[in-house]
Amino acid sequence: MSEYIGAIDQGTTSTRFMVFDHDGNEVARHQLEHEQIMPRAGWVEHNPAEIWERTRTVIKTVLTSSKLSAADLAAVGITNQRETTIVWDRRTGRPYCNAIVWQDTRTDRIAADLERAGHADCIRHKTGLPPATYFSGGKLKWILDNIPGVRADAERGDALFGTPDTWLLWNLTGGINGGVHVTDPTNASRTMLMDLETLDWDDELLALFGVPRAMLPTIAPSSNPQAYGHTNPDGPFKGAVPLTGILGDQQAATVGQVCFRPGEAKNTYGTGNFLLLNTGSDIVRSQHGLLTTVAYQFGDDKPIYALEGSIAVTGSAVQWLRDQLGIIAGATQSEMLAGQVHDTGGVVFVPAFSGLFAPYWRSDARGIIIGLSRYSTNAHIARATLEAIGYQTRDVVQAMEADSGVKLDTLRVDGGITANELCMQLQSDILGVPVSRPVVRETTALGAAYAAGLAVGFWSDPDELATNWHEDKRWEPTWSEAQREKGYGRWKKAVARTLDWVELDD
Ligand SMILES: Nc1ncnc2c1ncn2[C@@H]1O[C@H](COP(=O)(O)OP(=O)(O)OP(=O)(O)O)[C@@H](O)[C@H]1O
Ligand SMILES: [Mg+2]
């Protein structure tokens, strides 16, 4: 039997290919960034052809450098940035326009209209999501309404919709020569077009968004013993490997962190932050601004659901310090700069660049840096950026506790920012609970590998995976309760000042 599992992690900022062994250890990886296209304020796009090209390159590079071939891989899984919307022509394989990325806010009017027309409750009940720019449904409607020719092609089944998992799967399995058009329930649950109970596209929702069913992929289990398809030997694998796992990136991290029992949660720190709490086979509907989403569906098992707190901007605020303000040369420098001061000197930064996601869901919010004085420096702003990551997390943790009645005793973390020790210490201080980081921090790719490997019997069951999890480091709170509450009070005041800023006609 082949000794390894491959995982493609198509993220917001980069695409990785990783290979894991049976103990869940990383054997090889390569990663390439792609362009963030921002044609106007609030618009964020990616070029799907570039993403497919990066994917081919990272796969080929890993296989060459590690001297592995398709035959060494028992299966391959895909994980991906969710909600990002791609529409392409099945006859040519060409996208009709750039991908509209999850952070893009051009559909604010579509979301507001749904709310105004009284559809919010129905949408919330069926999909677990509030009307917001974040999800694919509005983005797909925008493409159908604004790009000439797409609607007619979609009705004939020539224009295909997919999130990046589906786009890559279609290309990997042959593209215009028989590519399969499939997604999984975790990705489908973020489109605002799928019913959480039936795990099928819902006719009422399709009518609301004006989406022809013919353009939508088939929804198949996240871990699929039947395989969605096999890699095309003419493609980057140069052989036929079964493709047997698909999970949205945050659900993949939940699986990678082995949160298989109800009540287990993880928080991933990447471009944004995403806290997911496993609620088992129960669909828990949030009263406090969280999303209800599919956590995973393995084979014929019942789907497992999660409550999710999505935060749009955390690591991307650090990138903003680097790219737009130019006060750091790289993300790791944020720790050094913030460490030059003992506190933020009263500065609070609320990075509401795409409005505020959970638990506020306010697309009319925009970012602020407040509390500035003649004393304020770059270091205070850098520290406020790290604190904002912690405070936004506290907002969603409180919502999670209120919804679930479960008090968090430890926060399991992963993702790029968890390399920042100061940020993790601040997180523990702000929450007042320990923060625990596992040895394998690439939990997103690992989760996709787990889903793929479970499907082919590479791993026998989820319990076996739990033995692969090991703690690397833990941070304990050091702030007094008074300090914690004072800081949080100031944060809430700053958040209040971001609201009601953008008018829909702006
Ligand atoms: N030492 C650090 N301190 C602060 N932020 C960091 C640090 N290292 C990385 N980051 C931030 O973490 C993010 C990258 O994390 P990660 O690699 O987990 O994200 P990602 O998975 O690539 O994101 P995505 O999947 O959304 O593309 C970047 O936004 C970067 O600014
Ligand atoms: Mg990622």
TrEMBL record:
Recorded superkingdom: Bacteria
Protein family membership: Belongs to the FGGY kinase family.
Species this chain originates from: Nocardia uniformis
A biological process from GO: glycerol-3-phosphate metabolic process
Pfam families: FGGY_C, FGGY_N
Location of the Carbohydrate kinase FGGY N-terminal domain: 4-256
Binding sites annotated in the UniProt record for glycerol: R82, E83, Y134, D249, Q250
Residues at which sn-glycerol 3-phosphate binds: T12, R82, E83, Y134, D249
Coiled-coil parts of chain: none
Domain Carbohydrate kinase FGGY C-terminal: 266-455
Name of the protein in its database record: Glycerol kinase
EC number: 2.7.1.30
Role of this protein: Key enzyme in the regulation of glycerol uptake and metabolism. Catalyzes the phosphorylation of glycerol to yield sn-glycerol 3-phosphate.
Binding site for ADP: T12, R16, T271, G315, G416, N420
Presence of keyword ATP-binding: yes
Pathway listed: Polyol metabolism; glycerol degradation via glycerol kinase pathway; sn-glycerol 3-phosphate from glycerol: step 1/1
Gene: glpK
Sites where the protein binds ATP: T12, T13, S14, T271, G315, Q319, G416
Matching InterPro entries: ATPase_NBD, Carb_kinase_FGGY, Carb_kinase_FGGY_CS, FGGY_C, FGGY_N, Glycerol_kin
